[in-house]
């Protein structure tokens, strides 16, 4: 169960956020409206939400998930692989320290963005991507093991982050997109395949029994409902333009 989430309001500078999506520039006003609805969805799942102020100097700062990993035992501040995002960490640190007395750090030359981390119980899968390197992943595994948790490295390609292609919905259910569907590391799960035209919805989020699903992906929505979950759609169009998925907009703990 999660009780809290940390989010950060999008800044006007999000128009120059990192992207490979080719979907055009986000509309800032609409992004703010969608962000408010995202917060409403978190509230509906019984979560207390801390909303941090905008950071104009960091266009991607609303994607708070990447700069910290919050576990039941400790917080870990990451070291983003994207150079324009490294400076976000000190700002999230302030917020995280309000809730966690022990905050560990990933250090250079290690890089790690927590969009590459998927939690399954006490185990954390860590995808190697352009943003997360083996050094960063190994540092994280060492930290996790000190706290009685575990981690393992996932080889992958063609995804921005691990959770761009995977979402764990608890109860052994895993949404899988593309190569992830047959990936040897995930064979033990009940895998639900996300079709190519619905790829963006592979990043959905389980929160306390409800699954938040991006709006506009009817096939996967139906498949998730058929598994017995309550679902809540959230319109993410403006964040999709910046390659940001549902999970990226919050730190849940
Ligand atoms: C970036 O490229 O860093 C942002 N525009 C999007 C980050 C998405 N985060 C995530 O998938 N966890």
Explained architecture:
This protein has 253 residues and is α/β, with parallel strands linked by helices. It is 21% helix and 24% strand. The chain starts with a strand and ends with a strand. Bound molecules: citrulline. Citrulline binds at residues 17-19, 60, 63, 65-66, 82, 85, 115, 160-161, 164, 242-245, 247-248. Citrulline binds next to loops.
Summarize the structure.
The chain is built from five helices and 15 strands.
Topology:
Layout: E1 4-8, H1 28-44, E2 48-52, E3 68-70, E4 75-77, H2 89-97, E5 103-105, E6 117-120, E7 123-127, H3 134-146, E8 150-154, E9 166-168, E10 173-177, E11 190-194, E12 205-207, E13 210-214, H4 218-226, E14 230-234, H5 237-240, E15 251-252
Parallel strand pairs: 1-2, 4-5, 7-8, 10-11, 13-14
Antiparallel strand pairs: 1-15, 3-4, 6-7, 9-10, 12-13
